[in-house]
Design a protein that fits this description.
Number of domains: 2
Radius of gyration: 19 Å
CATH superfamily of the largest domain: Aspartate/ornithine carbamoyltransferase
Order of helices and strands: HEHEHEHEHEHEHEHEHHEHH
Distance between the termini: 18 Å
Oligomer: single chain
Number of helices: 12
Number of strands: 9
Length: about 300
């Protein structure tokens, strides 16, 4: 089997078969990553440029490691230290890079739609969206889904709540698309000012403003970061007040009548959306998400390069 698309622009463009193929391929790569020799030469003739216009730690390192584990040649690009600071356009930057015979571009950009723009203008080069504005972050949603499936056995029928800054989160949108496609039941929870008013009807998700009710309902809580850098106006009083009303604490988890799984895409704001005792506790799979990110991104790169069988 192969993916139905040449690019990974967003979860919205993937079929359920594509998602299942990526997750099953990631399982094979995770097995390989447990071996003493973690490299496979599947992409040894492929050159990949990591084009990051926004700061990133986990996503950038995860992609770099995935590329090196697959044997690809990797070029790292940071906008802050490039000709972008001199006024060079996105398209000119990429065309210059492609003139050096690059096969694939992994891009993070502050503008929503930037990855789609590249795919439109560079149809013969595989584009991987590593996060575009407030639009999508597809590989994060894929690794989140992989982590849920690994922990619970599947996605069909699972109750997943996304907690926090839904309005500004590309992770939330990609997760909603993926979870709904794969048969999960989805809820968003947080202050009314951080949840788009149209979201229930537009995406067929539940909305809850009471955190304890949301946690009592779910099997999995994916806790999102408060994205102050994207907020154009004051949407809640203080971070302390946010923590008191919507922070995931051990106290609120202990008050539930069941165990739930806690996730977070990072970076974690300890003491704001989640307390350290929870982030580091037994119910948390945050570090497993980071580990799974490498396997999932290996699967994405491998499949977009046309791979059919995982080399061993």
């Amino acid at each position: 089997m192969q993916l139905s698309t040449k690019h990974l622009i967003g979860i919205k463009q993937l079929s359920t078969e594509d998602i299942s193929l990526i997750l099953s391929t990631a399982s094979q790569f995770k097995e390989i990553l447990q071996r003493p020799v973690k490299k496979v030469p599947s992409l040894r003739d492929i050159t990949i440029v990591n084009l990051f216009y926004e700061n990133s730690t986990r996503t950038r390192i995860s992609f770099e490691l995935a590329e090196k584990r697959l044997g690809a040649d990797t070029i790292n690009f940071a906008a802050s230290s490039s000709s972008v600071s001199k006024g060079e356009t996105l398209l000119d930057t990429v065309n210059n890079i492609l003139s050096m015979k690059v096969d694939m571009v992994v891009m993070r950009h502050h503008a929503s739609g930037a990855a789609h723009f590249l795919a439109k203008h560079l149809p013969h080069t595989a584009i991987v969206n590593a996060g575009d504005g407030t639009n999508e972050h597809p590989t994060q949603a894929l690794l989140d889904a992989f982590s849920i499936k690994e922990k619970t056995g599947g996605l069909q029928g699972k109750k997943v709540v996304l907690v926090g800054d839904i309005m500004h989160s590309r992770v939330a949108l990609s997760n909603i698309y993926l979870l709904k496609k794969m048969g999960a039941d989805v809820m968003v929870a947080g202050p009314p000012t951080l949840i788009p008013k149209y979201i229930a009807q537009a995406f067929d998700v539940k909305v809850e403003y009471d955190l304890k009710k949301a946690l009592q309902w779910c099997d999995v809580a994916n806790v999102l970061r408060i994205q102050l850098e994207r907020q154009k106006k004051v949407l809640f009083s203080t971070l302390r007040e946010y923590n008191l009303s919507y922070g995931i604490t051990k106290k609120i988890l202990d008050s539930l009548k069941k165990e739930i799984i806690i996730m977070h895409p990072g970076p974690v704001n300890r003491g704001v959306e989640i307390d350290s005792e929870v982030a580091d506790g037994n119910s948390s799979i945050i570090l497993q998400q980071v580990e799974n990110g490498v396997a999932v991104r290996m699967a994405v790169l491998y499949l977009l390069a046309g791979g059919k069988n995982v080399s061993s």
